[in-house]
Request: fold
Amino acid sequence: MSPDDALQKPLPAPDADTAAFWRGLREGKLLLQHCRACGHVQYYQQAMCRACGSEELEHRAASGRGKVHSFSVVHRAPGPAFKADTPYAVLLVELAEGPRMISTFTGGKPEDVTFDMDVELTFDRVAEEITLPRFRRA
Ligand SMILES: [Zn+2]
Reply:
């Protein structure tokens, strides 16, 4: 690994199950999978409904609204590429549609984050193919 590689943040690699999800983010939509069989809504993309096993899933864009269910502030960077970002807040956001997702806080200081705070989705384009979902105070 060259020193330059160490400064590159690891990026997610879209696969067959998640390609639509990443395309959605590039278009400014956070896609959730809704199960036509049981109504379960899931965030993490996969071929089957985690509640009932049905493959009858359809993508729908999330409203972008949510609440901070839990969070922690990262003071020590997990690698050199993240050093300039610290301290930052890692959020466990409960989306209005139900699923919880891990993301990061943007648009303020990590000290601003509180439990149950209303947040809204923003899109952070970090590479040609990759746009990351992040949250700011609503
Ligand atoms: Zn289901």
